[in-house]
Each structure stands twice: as structure tokens, then as C-alpha cells.
Amino acid sequence: MITVRAPATSANLGSGFDVFGVAFDRPADIIRVERAEQTTIDITGVGSQYIPTDPDANTVGAVVDALDAPAHIEIDKGVRPASGLGSSAASAAGAAVALNELYNRGLSRSELVPIAAEGEAVVSGTAHADNVAPSILGGFTIATADGVESVSTDISLVACLPEIAVSTRDARRVVPETAQMAEVVETVGNAATLAVGMCRGDPDLVGRGMDDPLVTPARAELITGYDAVREAAVDAGATGVTVSGAGPSVLAVCRARDQRAVGSAMLTAFDDHEVDARVYQTQVSDGATIL
Fold it and tell me: What HAMAP family would the database entry show (predicted)?
């Protein structure tokens, strides 16, 4: 048996739609795989009752097919589905790393990214790598059609997950199909600022670079209380706030000393809108780990 811990992630980071991602140190999925003649899937943990165990309908099924690696797969979900924290990606990423090891396929971590991305297509309709890349590689990642780049960085994050469900498919439907050139230029500049901030470990640059006039405003409309949560986080010391992935989680960047205050402020703001929520104080961390 091979056991892998695959971390939660946040994609987009505001200005890096479908390109940027970061790995968290928590929460995470635990994936266990054993060789078998036919693939079977057992799922436990948070939200497990909503996840299909049919390999054709689960993200890990596509990974099994791509690696030609049938197995009995146990997934202990630590990352809630429909959270904006890369839940489906964590399962796909963990399965890719585990099955590659189990069957001695010899693929590099970078080579496993597009394989895990095929699993994402099962739930979102698109084989995007912005979540699976950081879950496999760790750090801050930039995923493009030409490949993936990753860098380790020391940035403190707060992810606040409200008890609201926003599906990836619904969140993609509200993405604008056109944009004004001025908005494109602003977004490119912010994305460049964010990338430099990640490389420097500078929370001020990262926070400034998260601003996004294109996708985030549309997705924020799907999250009850988003504007109040964002304002509360900034007032408590956050250097930047945005929607985490497809939502409904809200992601804040801050200094380590401000994490507790930022998380508390975000919880209070959601509570003011009669929305229950939980908070994760985390760091940008390593990717999937074989235990």
C-alpha cells in the first residue's frame, strides 16, 4: 500500500485566472492505493457523502486510466468538496503521485501534473492544472499550456470557508467572455506584481497583485457577505483579499503576526451575514508527500 498526503490549494489568486496556484499546509486529503485487477474507490471524511465512488465519475478514475494503474483507492477527505480549496484536485493529485509510485511508472512530478489535470475535467469539464499543480509540486505555481513552473515561498495565508456551496461549473459560467483592454492591462500588471511578490516572499506585493477587475467581481456575487468579509480582513491587517478558486472560500494574504486577527475578522463578518464559516491559518507549503 502507498499512502500520500495531498494538500488543499488555492487557484487564480485573483489576477492569475486559470494560471496561478498555491499549496497550503492544511487541510489535506489522505489517499491510499493498493494494486487490484479492477479499480474501486472508498471515500470517507468531510463531504464524502456527496462524492461519487464510480471511477468514471470520480477525478481519480481518469488518473487510473492515464497511468494504466488499476487499484483499490481509499480517500480520506480533509478538503471539503465545493469549497474553492482544490478538493477534487487534491484527490487527483494524491492519486497520481501514489499510483506512479505503486506501479513504478517513473514519471516526474511535473509529468504527473497534466495527468492529474485530466481528473479535474471530470468535475469541471476542463482539464485545468491551476489546482493540481501546487498540490503535486508545492509552493507557488504558474501553469500554462507550455508547462508548469513552481517556486518555494514564505507567505502567510488565511482561508475562510463559509457554509455556502458554489460549484466549479457555476463559477465558470459567470466568467465574462469579453474584457476591455484597460482591464486586461491592469490584470497583467497585477499578476506580474503578484509573481514578483511570491518570489521575494513579500506579502505587500502579493496582496497588491491580487486585485482583479475581470473574474473576481463576478464570482464574488455568488458569495453572501463577500464585500464585508474582504473589508474586515483588510482592516485587520490583510494585504490582499480575493475569492479562492471558484469560491466560496475567501483567501487573504497577510503577515504571520496578523493571521489570527484576520481570521477572526473574516469569521465575524460572515456571522454578521448569518453565514457559518470556518477558518484555516496556513502557509504556502510543500506539495503531495508520500507517507
Answer: Homoser_kinase (MF_00384)
Known binding-site positions: 80-90
Active-site residue, from 9, 153, 168, 282:
168
Handedness of CA 45, 49, 55, 56 (dihedral sign): negative
Domain carrying residue 162: 156-283
Question: What cell does 134 get?
Answer: 501546487
List of residues 6+ apart from 217 with CB closer than 8 A: none
* H or E, element range at 160: strand 156-162
Nearest alpha-carbon partner for 111 in 60, 61, 65, 67:
67
Per-residue model confidence (pLDDT) at position 58 = 93
The residue written with cell numbers 494494486 in the block is 35
- Rounded CA separation 206/254 (Å): 9
* 53 part of the active site: no
pLDDT for position 167: 67
Q: Helices H, strands E: what count in the chain?
A: 10, 11
* Residue 184 to residue 174: CA distance in whole angstroms: 17
DSSP state of 35: E
**Is there a single domain that holds both residue 168 and residue 185?**
yes
Residues annotated in the binding site for ATP, as ranges? 80-90
In angstroms, the CA 268 to CA 260 distance is 12
My answer on whether 139 and 279 are in the same domain is no
CATH number, residue 20: 3.30.230.10
> CA 241 from chain center: how many Å?
15
pLDDT beyond 90 at 234: yes
Which listed residue (9, 59, 118, 120) is catalytic?
120
What pLDDT does residue 177 have?
Answer: 85
- For residue 43, give the C-alpha cell: 471515500
The set of residues, in sequence order, having a beta carbon less than 8 Å from that of 101 and lying 6+ positions away, is 2, 4, 290
More confident residue, 120 or 152: 152
Contacts (Cβ under 8 Å, ≥6 apart) of 58: 41, 51, 52, 91, 122
